[in-house]
Amino acid sequence: MKLPMNYCSNCGHAVGRAVPEGDTHERWVCPDCSMIHYQNPKIVVGCVPERDGQILLCKRAIEPRHGYWTVPAGFMELEETMAEGAARETMEEACAEVEIGHLFAAVDVPQAGQVHVFYTAKLISDFAPGPESLETAMYAPGDIPWDDIAFPSGRFALEKWIEDDGRNNGVHAYTARRRLIG
Question: Which fold has domain 42-175?
Answer without folding.
Answer: Nucleoside Triphosphate Pyrophosphohydrolase (3.90.79)
